[in-house]
Design brief:
With 92 residues, this protein is mostly beta strands. 4% of the residues lie in helices and 15% in strands.
Length: 92
């Protein structure tokens, strides 16, 4: 996405947070139920390309932003033993 000065681009991303029902259980990759804070980090440039070699190519358009964008922490409450329902998303 190439943005003009002061232009923004908004989009919605859906991300699941796996929650374990018992906070005493040690389940890798899961969050425990309760009051938590989370933040999302969005990569602005593909890892497979070296942005530093492309800076001069982008100079005529403006700045090439390669640093990740990190959202402010958001407080959430994850309930233990929530009612589950089929979300309709395909399994990974």
């Amino acid at each position: 996405m190439v943005l003009k000065h002061n232009q923004t681009y908004e989009f919605t991303a859906v991300e699941g947070i796996p929650v374990r029902n018992n906070s005493a259980d040690e389940v890798p990759g899961t969050a425990y139920p309760g009051d938590l804070a989370f933040s999302i980090e969005l990569q602005t440039w593909p890892f497979s390309r070296d942005a530093s070699t492309l800076q001069k190519d982008w100079a005529r358009f403006g700045d090439l932003i390669t640093a990740p964008v990190i959202g402010y922490p958001t407080l959430i409450k994850l309930p233990a033993n929530p009612v589950t329902e089929k979300c309709g998303l395909p399994a990974p």
